[in-house]
Design a protein that fits this description.
One of its GO terms (biological process) is DNA damage response. Keywords: Hydrolase, Manganese, Metal-binding. GO terms for molecular function: metal ion binding; phosphatase activity. By secondary structure, the protein is of the alpha/beta class. It has 2 domains: 87 residues, no CATH class; 268 residues, 3-Layer(aba) Sandwich (Rossmann fold), CATH 3.40.50.10880. Helix content is 47%, strand content 10%. The longest helix has 20 residues. The two termini are 19 Å apart.
């Protein structure tokens, strides 16, 4: 196997990855302190984490909570390193794990145990005008031609990734109204999803709020069209700002139940029935909150992926974990970067980080000339498939 490119780091001044720590995270911490009446010791722990991540080193302590064996090994490999020498993906995952420790999310004797620090932001999106627009659009699909409806639901799930609350932390006014596809392997995606057989289609979710709502509509379509059972894989606990958990799915279904559109309420009813009957299986795994990419998948999850008809990975973080958060030449074929994956895989992702693969060279030249920051704005998207 050829050598992989170097990891994207957070050490280069002016880079996007560095700005996440020096610009996004300070706003994120301020938002948490505004959203919750945290006592002084939790507020101090959050401020200390922020200061450490900007100018400190990784301490030898293993952060508490589940998956402790994995974190013990990861900390042993990185303890003592300055934060700005860490790989971007690892450093981000570690920051959020430490954040959960600071707010005592896994501390069973704390009244803050199990309190999702990002819940107020998630609830605001479920109650917001953008979701209202999304649900109006969903209801308008009644009576649409089957191919048009299918295309609309796939694109809604794709562009729902623009609603990433981490991205919007320091880009609250980002113009995501327009966008275009850099790569579109949707025909290959449907060929795999529609293939005969009882193997499940696995959808690995990314964000709560508007994105998981669109994902659930896509899941409903997969079930309606008889592709077989569907598994929706979720985070076992809060991770990055708006990552979807089982609690978020329940909250979303409750919101759909209250919608004025009968079509939306019917959607919620079908999804609840599918869960009860076992056609829609909600699943989680500790690997989804590991600080590593999918080349190090635990054997049980790798076997599930290998046995699936298709794995659909949603969002920018899953994309980074799939191809590796590395300094790829953007023209590297997607099938090459994701070739190790144990089964057929499709990535649905809006670009909100430096990473890109599978870009046609002529298209890349035009993108770089017309909008040099095209990889960061959330207005370009990818539907890419490795069969």
């Amino acid at each position: 196997m050829p050598d992989l490119p170097p990891h994207i780091g957070i050490d280069r001044p002016g880079s996007f990855s560095r700005s996440v720590f020096h610009e996004r995270h300070p706003v994120l911490i301020a938002n948490l302190l505004a959203d919750h009446p945290y006592p002084p010791h939790i507020a101090e722990a959050l401020e200390a984490l922020l200061a450490e991540s900007l100018a400190g080193t990784v301490p030898p302590r293993t952060p508490g909570g589940p998956e402790i064996h994995t974190w013990h090994l990861e900390i042993a490999a990185h303890a003592g390193r300055p934060w700005d020498s860490l790989p971007f993906l690892w450093a981000e995952a570690y920051f959020y794990r430490r954040l959960l420790r600071a707010v005592e999310f896994h501390h069973y004797e704390s009244p803050w145990c199990g309190v999702d620090p990002f819940a107020p932001q998630k609830r605001a999106q479920l109650d917001g005008p953008e979701l209202r627009t999304d649900l109006d659009a969903y209801a308008s699909l009644e009576g649409a031609a089957p191919d048009d409806r299918r295309r609309a639901l796939l694109l809604a799930a794709l562009w729902g990734n623009q609603a990433d609350l981490g991205f919007r932390t320091n880009n609250p006014d980002a113009d995501t109204a327009n966008g275009d596809l850099v790569a579109d392997d949707s025909d290959a995606l449907w060929a795999l999803a529609d293939a005969p057989g009882d193997a499940p289609v696995i959808v690995v979710a990314d964000n709560a709020g508007r994105e998981i709502t669109a994902d659930l509509a896509l899941v409903d379509h997969l079930l309606e069209t008889g592709t077989g059972p569907v598994e929706l894989h979720l985070k076992p606990h809060p991770y990055f700002v708006s990552d979807a958990t089982g609690r978020d799915v329940v909250d979303t279904l409750d919101a759909l139940d209250r919608d004025p559109h009968q079509a939306v309420r019917d959607l919620a009813g079908r999804l609840r029935d599918a869960i009860r009957l076992g056609w829609l299986r909600l699943r989680s795994h500790g690997a989804y909150v590991h600080p590593t990419d999918y080349r190090t998948l635990p054997s049980d999850l790798a076997e599930e992926f290998a046995a699936a008809k298709l794995v659909i990975l949603k969002g920018d973080l899953n994309y980074r974990r799939l191809v590796g958060d590395r300094q790829w030449d953007p023209t590297t074929p997607f099938a090459q970067a994701a070739g190790y994956f144990p089964g057929p895989v499709a990535a649905l992702r809006t670009a909100k980080s430096d990473l890109a693969v599978g870009v046609d060279p002529a298209r890349l030249a035009k993108l770089d000339a017309d909008a040099p920051d095209w990889r960061l704005t959330g207005t370009r998207a990818f539907i890419q498939v490795k069969a």
